[in-house]
Design goal:
The complex is a heterodimer of chains A (about 325) and B (about 190).
Chain A (H helix, E strand, L loop, with lengths): L3 H9 L3 H12 L1 H31 L2 E3 L2 E3 L5 H7 L1 E8 L2 E5 L3 H34 L4 H9 L6 H12 L4 H8 L14 H11 L1 H13 L3 H9 L4 H29 L3 H6 L7 H9 L5 H35 L1
Antiparallel strand pairs in A: 1-2, 3-4
Helix pairs in contact in A: 3-15, 4-15, 5-9, 5-10, 5-12, 7-9, 10-12, 11-12, 14-15
Chain B lengths: L4 H11 L10 H14 L10 H10 L10 H8 L14 E2 L12 H15 L1 H11 L14 H6 L7 H7 L1 E2 L6 H12 L3
The chains are: A mainly alpha (about 325), B mainly alpha (about 190).
Chain lengths: ~325, ~190
């Protein structure tokens, strides 16, 4: 028979191992922190760190037709950077590489993304400015209304541009019906500008929000002071608003630039024969090319190139911003 | 152009005069690449979007496309004048295979044969030729169609063996990864 005192005792007494864990956690503050973070930490490790480590590991393997040889080799990286006596040219730049396709397409992708990022910021900034300074009531409704078109699938948005820019698409049909052209303009689609236009539209909403937040945070009394001191509207914008919203612009730029370098859906759908990017080659190597290790190595090189560029960019703007803040 | 080795590279290999397009020498591969580079400006895109090139043919954006037989049927259904071109080098023909894995138990083997028999039946053949316009392994299927109906689908009526012998029957491509790498370079314009 179990008495009431037995039941109380059972509740109070804990296994010795659990008591030891508790005591250990009590002594180590950092371990307690990690323990509390553990669900998120496990997701980050499982979904971000592990795939990256796997890809780095795979990039040192070798594809032997259908099988993968996992013994360590730098062959894939050598295939990307192997020098050659005869150069291949891109934008007039000589590339003395045996297989220049990877480096040239990486450069091309970076340039496309840079242009797309600049266009995105130029489009997003006025929208964010309007939201932050001109809209006085129902701001949330405005934000929702502006971002509604971006709730649709990324693929559908890219496909929509195919319909807009296409041979018998919206623009060509409009120009034909207005009698401005005799036959549809073919250069609208299937080239690099089409990729840039599509990327710029597809990523506008992503850039809009950080710029809006940085503009919203600006202390309005600073703008009043500038006006009181005789600054024109343009001077006030250039000397006060723009510098104070730079963190938002930088964040937006990075948010757009980093993922667009590796995009392959957009060039596949609207790039045609001239809009191919590095993402298309990686995808092709993983699938039809049956060379996952080389695809992994190309991906690592792309990640490294983006990391270096972003670090250089942040390093370049960092000291300048600090000086401004001190001043 | 269909974004695949068999369409993008092998068709060019046949055009460039390779002795065996599916087993090319290094010199033949180099010549094939030259022809692919020359071909690139004539193309709108390398794609696997069947609907996309059918719409492009319908709108007049494309005047010719490398495609499967169903394209012609779909265009003709829309009353768009179009016809199948059989190149002077002969058509490229192929058969799809069905494989039985080693882990199929004897009890399930009968089901596999049921599936294969269903695939090879004349009824399936008629549906196949009618709907997709592609040839079928069962010769009896063709007797259900007039010569005109077969010609419309790019299938020459008469002796099927002679039709296949006159063209290029697809085989396993030798050194596929290397050819894919060359194809990627051409697609990227390098």
């Amino acid at each position: 028979m179990v008495t009431a005192s037995d039941r109380v005792g059972a509740k109070v007494s804990q296994p010795a191992s659990w008591r030891r864990v508790k005591a250990w956690l009590h002594r180590h503050a950092s371990a307690r922190g990690y323990f509390l973070l553990s669900p998120t930490l496990l997701i980050v490790i499982g979904l971000m760190v592990a795939p990256l480590v796997t890809m780095i590991g795979l990039s040192f393997a070798t594809q032997r037709y259908l099988a993968i040889d996992y013994s360590f080799s730098l062959k894939n990286y050598w295939a990307i950077f192997e020098p050659a006596a005869k150069p291949a040219y891109y934008l007039g730049i000589p590339f003395y590489l045996h297989k220049p396709i990877y480096v040239i397409l990486l450069l091309k992708s970076i340039l496309i993304s840079l242009v797309a990022t600049v266009v995105v910021v130029l489009i997003s900034y006025p929208m964010a400015y309007f939201l932050a300074f001109r809209v006085k009531k129902h701001k949330l409704t405005w934000i929702i209304l502006i971002t509604v078109p971006f709730w649709t699938s990324y693929l559908l948005r890219v496909f929509a541009w195919k319909i807009i820019l296409g041979y018998n698409g919206v623009i060509n049909s409009g120009l034909l019906s207005l009698g401005l052209v005799d036959q549809p303009i073919e250069v609208l689609l299937y080239n690099t500008p089409a990729v840039i236009i599509t990327l710029a539209h597809a990523w506008t909403a992503v850039a809009l929000l950080p710029i809006y937040v940085s503009l919203e945070k600006i202390d309005r009394s600073l703008l009043e002071v500038a006006s009181d001191l005789g600054a024109t509207g343009f001077q006030r914008f250039v000397d006060v608003t723009l510098p104070l919203s730079l963190p938002g612009i930088i964040a937006a730029g990075l948010l757009v630039f980093i993922p667009t370098v590796g995009d392959y859906i957009t060039p596949t759908l609207v790039g045609g024969t001239n809009g191919i990017m590095i993402g298309n080659v990686v995808q092709s190597l993983f699938t039809k090319g049956s060379n996952a290790p080389l695809a992994a190595a190309v991906s690592i090189v792309v990640i490294a190139a983006i990391t270096i560029l972003v670090c250089l960019f942040l390093w370049g703007i960092g000291p300048d911003r600090l000086r401004r803040q001190k001043a | 152009m269909i974004d695949s080795l068999i369409d993008g590279v092998m068709a060019v290999a046949i055009y460039s005069g390779a002795k065996d397009p599916f087993n090319m020498t290094e010199a033949e591969v180099a010549k094939c690449k030259e022809y692919m580079i020359k071909q690139r400006p004539l193309l709108r895109s390398y794609t696997n979007d069947n609907t996309g090139w059918q719409q492009a043919l319908a709108s007049g954006e494309l005047v010719a496309a490398d495609s499967w037989n169903d394209t012609i049927l779909n265009l003709q259904k829309q009353n768009i004048p179009s016809m199948f071109m059989i190149p002077k080098e002969g058509p490229m023909t192929w058969t799809c295979g069905i494989g039985m894995t080693s882990w199929v138990t004897p009890q399930k083997e009968a089901r596999v044969y049921d599936l294969i028999n269903a695939y090879l039946s004349a009824d399936t053949g008629v549906y196949w030729v009618e709907t997709f316009g592609m040839g079928h392994s069962n010769k009896n299927a063709y007797s259900h169609f007039s010569g005109e109906e077969l010609t419309k689908r790019g299938l020459t009526p008469g002796d099927i063996d002679a039709y296949i012998a006159a063209g290029h029957f697809q085989a396993t491509i030798r050194n596929e990864p290397a050819l894919q790498a060359i194809y990627e370079e051409v697609k990227a314009g390098i």
